[in-house]
Amino acid sequence: MRKSDREVTDPAEKLAVLLRCDFMTLALAEEEAPYALPLNFGAEVRGGVLYLYFHCAREGKKLDLLRAAPKVGFSAAHLLRIFNKGVAPCGYTTDYESICGWGVARILQTDAEREHALRVLMAHYTGETFAHVPFHPHSLSLTETVEIRVQEWTCKRLVRP
């Protein structure tokens, strides 16, 4: 990272920053150009490894690209404020937190894996785990879930007084 004074290195704080982000952008390999799209997501750390989860329809371009090349990139950002610290328009700047990384995606196969991924995703947005609420079988049959085992990720923050 070029500006190392902005790097967040504590794993717990990096996860907290990630969970403050409303969405992530997933980058997939495509022949003509990278294919990037915003997604809802869930995140958890297991055994010291970050896992990201998302859901989608059971067919489509995103899954086709993942099957062909499961290595993916991702980013997420949390905009804290926009302000003018000098003479407008060049004086405008932002305070922010951001996450970037890459990992290997895997389409989840079992109902138990899929339900776990959806519970992690729901916890991110609702704060609830829905631990004792079953998923409707018809809804599950229409939903694909994907896990990204993150290999590398960095966190950057800039907050001025």
Short description:
By secondary structure, the protein is an alpha+beta fold.
Please tell me about this protein's structure.
There is one protein chain. 24% of the residues lie in helices and 45% in strands. With 161 residues, it is an alpha+beta fold. The protein has one domain: Electron Transport, Fmn-binding Protein, Chain A (Pnp Oxidase, Chain A). Strands 1, 2, 3, 4, 5, 6, 7 and 8 form an 8-stranded antiparallel β-sheet that branches. The protein starts with 6 loop residues before the first strand and ends with a strand.
Helix and strand topology:
Elements: E1 7-8, H1 11-20, E2 24-28, E3 35-39, E4 42-46, E5 49-57, H2 61-68, E6 71-84, E7 92-107, H3 111-126, H4 137-141, E8 143-158
Antiparallel strand pairs: 1-8, 2-3, 2-6, 4-5, 5-8, 6-7, 7-8
- Which CATH class applies here? Mainly Beta
Strand content: 35-45%
Q: What's the total count of β strands?
A: 8
Q: Number of domains in the coordinates?
A: 1
CATH topology: Pnp Oxidase, Chain A
Structural class: alpha+beta
Provide the residue-averaged pLDDT: 92
Q: How do the helices and strands follow one another from N- to C-terminus?
A: EHEEEEHEEHHE
Overall shape: globular
Key phrases:
single chain, 161 residues, alpha+beta, Pnp Oxidase, Chain A, 45% strand
